[in-house]
Design a protein that fits this description.
CATH superfamily of the largest domain: 2-enoyl-CoA Hydratase, Chain A, domain 1
Structural class: alpha/beta
CATH topology of the largest domain: 2-enoyl-CoA Hydratase, Chain A, domain 1
CATH class of the largest domain: Alpha Beta
Largest sheet: 10 strands, mixed
Helix content: 40-55%
Amino acid sequence: MNQPPPARGPVATFFVGAWNVVNFARKLFLNVLFFGFLLFLIMFMILLAGISSSSAVKPVIDRTTLVVAPEGRLVEQYSTDPATRALAKLLNDKDAEEIQLRDLVRAIDAAGEDKKIERMMLRVDKLQPTGYASLREVAAALERFRASGKQIVAFGENLGQHQYLLAAQANEVYLDPMGGLLLEGLGRYRQYFRQALQEKLGVDVHVFRVGEFKSAVEPYVLDAASPESKEADLFWMNDVWQRYLGDVAKARKLTPQQLAAGIDTLPEGIAAAGGDLAKFALQQKLVDGLKTREDVENLLIERGVADEDSDTGFRQVTLEGYLAHLDTQRAATLDKRPQIAVVVAEGEITDGEQPAGRIGGESTSALLREARDDEDVKAVVLRVDSPGGGVFASEQIRREVAALKAAGKPVVVSMGDLAASGGYWISMNADRIYADPSTITGSIGIFGMIPTVPRTLEKIGVHTDGVGTTRFAGAFDITRPLDPAVGQVIQSIINKGYADFTGKVADARKKPVEAVDEVARGRVWSGAQAKERGLVDELGGMQAATDYAAQLAKLGGADKYRVRYIEQNASPFAQFMGRMAGSRIGALWLKDSDIARAMLAQRLPEANTQLRFVEEALQDRQGGAPVKALAYCFCGF
């Protein structure tokens, strides 16, 4: 049995109390000193970041070569905050790198008018494009650069056909003698899981849809693509491919027939070239010569200005450095002109608040409301690059588009690579819809899908049983067989969703519902095909959409207004870390400090994880409705 501690006397109590007071004061003093030092350190780093960032922007001098060598995915909008991007770059995380389409086009167009930029060196080996519509916007910018009288020299080591569309726009295209370049055509192949799910695992997938061309659910219920799916896919893919051949042929002064013949006779041609892909590309006139990187750099030294301090040996500015130069110039100007606001809707459409790179029913609606409430905003361009998603979230955004129009602010949609299904839902009420001829759009249709797993559980000896107060209590439990009556309920909901979709399209596009149904039923179209069928108003890119928005708002010429992107703001901490990581001092500290890396890994927001959309959509979130209609298109390359 434990004995209680002996009671302290009055003298001992006094000294113990005095010590506690002193100890508390000591800890308080040290904590104040520590946090004061921490605050000083943070302010010092902010000052250094600001000074270093300002000094890092070097002025562009005469006869400079702009080196355009974008790395990472070509996106409409960054999917991570500035700090995460800066850290990923410092840690050489290639998978996380992104380049915004708007920045790439802006730099090329500015360089075409910049008297200090003499020529361009183009390297696109490490660019990861997402579709042909955005690539054609970049290609158009390169064509404008050439039209200004300036030369583009492209060099590649290994080029895919997406990247080659840009390289082909150069005056001269060089390929490494040990490199490769192949044009192969467009293909779209998916895995089909019916046998694995139903026969191997015992999962029964119940599909509810309207439209024989709504093929998003086919991999779960078939072993191969349906005839309707193949017919629709081949129709729009052939249109996109013929346009690709035409674009490349025009740039390289060839004919589409020559390019197609080179692909059809690929085995014989490569064999005749001794298996040498670079030599084969030269024989096909896809490139102008075979040179190493050093050869090309020496060529640019001869044509430009030698610079011993440059890594390339010639006077140059990188794409990143040139963008920083342009941003510095823009920041120095106080612009009070009326605005055209651009809201980017990129990614899957899901409920609630979503980060950049995804579309949230609430978060994207909030951006559109911000544009509506801002008196300086006179018109809005909604840039859509989305395969769709949830019907409810799509409807929330569509309502905000309608509210903008009701407030007297014109809305013009510019479709990017993909604006299908829910992506079309949020677009249809615009005053005018622009699409690139190679945009993928349409897919006006609705589907729902419920997997049930009682046979799966039986394989391991697990059975489900119980009671309910009505015949439908627990009817949506996936561990139980699906009641045919429940299936009837779900199909009715899907039918209603399709009727809503086509009805809203008919109202927005001023067409009979029957006419909309003929081009709907889940079928996918290219932008050019969609225009022929009245789903798109005009063919053109972002600039054409912006010009028309200015025209609707009666703003006058391009010098009478400015374009402003309305986006979610990064947190103050993320902004600070982004500035610090972007500075030379901060970059060195972060790159060499294991402690800094560990701290940032804990504090910075995590990059978005690409989850399977259907898996996420099928989850019953916090007791929400067990049936959710989806307007989604698994289309693309």
